[in-house]
Fold this sequence. Notes:
This protein has 276 residues and is of the alpha/beta class. It has nine helices and nine strands.
Amino acid sequence: MRTDRGLLGPLHVLVTGASSGLGAAIAIAYARRGARVAVFARRREALEAVAARCRVEGAADAVALAGDVTQRGDVARAIAALDSRWARLDRAVLNAGIALSDQAARSFAECCTSDAQTAAAFDAATAESIMRTNYLGAVFFLEPVLAWMRGGGGGRIAVTGSMAADGLLQRSGPYMASKIALRALVDGLRPDACGFDIKLSVLEPGFVETEMTEGVTYKMPFLLSADEAAEAFVRGIEAGRERVRVPWQMSACNHLARFVPASLRTRAAAWLARQR
């Protein structure tokens, strides 16, 4: 069974949700390492621009695959196109995600200011849309990617979650639920995947400067640029780490918060919500 140490030539890397933000930055980080990079997202023009940037940054190959992660037909066509172009797939970073129901029109700012994810005006359609993109968008790619890697002797898959899975992000129940589900999915698949020399990682950022965070008026603690976060995540993937969390300061604060009684955390969150 092939191992990463036995790879010949550049890495073959697929990144979803790669038309901007963290996904684009991860694709570019791999391009700078000389990888062959495939980027997948809905916005073709933006995706082509990312692929062009990857070529400039040193990618051995860069291909743009337009599609929607929530549509299994789009996923199947993208994998088929890659299979006809590449002999193997070494890395997959399943990064696509939204904070509210319409990625093109909604930002993370609205995630924590809208009532749609709260008890005040809970909206099932919003919750469904978030879960379809954030969770099923990864699930639909996992099936063909795992099959490809099983047949090819192994590889590494990273799924972008969030520190929101720690349960501390206000006014965002469905968003947190989607990220908790991703964490559990990766943790549950990991033991079996090891038998096929497939390593699974979950990437859990805090606040990152992307299109999703544009327009946020409240202070985002320990804010990172997309490039900084991407470099940290790629290093973590290549090191084989099971969970990669950046920035470390926010991760540490979240861990410390676990020692605060749940009832006290709930009252504090309710008080903070009233201050907005």
